[in-house]
Amino acid sequence: MNVDVTPLPGIGVRKDFQLTGVRRRIGVIDHKDGSIDLIFTKVGDPDTTVQIPLSEAEAGVLANLLGAPQLVAQLREEHRDMDGVNTRQLPVLDGSPYDGRTLGETGMRTRTTSSIVAVMRAGQVIASPGPDFAFTAGDLLVVVGTGEGLDAAARILTDG
User: Which of 49, 91, 92, 129 could anchor a disulfide with 139, C-beta 3.0 to 4.6 Å?
Assistant: First the structure.
């Protein structure tokens, strides 16, 4: 898929691509001040652009919504021939007992036999987080294990 990158003098950079099956383009404008706008345009008609300013938190949540499922799907595909191995994304919600605490404090591997293989945070993938990695509300954890282990992991993140 080709992403068109267009410098916008004095503003920043526009990055967008054409959606398959509809005559629309979608993308972002990265402003020089660090802010981000989500954009949606009819192909060939830039005057129809809808521009939605996103806060840093909103941009991170949107990136997680789009990025984590892709990562989970890739891991599922890689594990499809391994019976009993499942991959799931689990959120660290506001109010989670592990918001602000480390991976090591969860005892996740020992308590569930599941492994946190990646964390999606603000659109960035943090692969193989170590025991000192601190979670924050809004993180999406990519966890690999048995179905039972993944259910236990979800309970730990919710209830402690």
Answer: 92
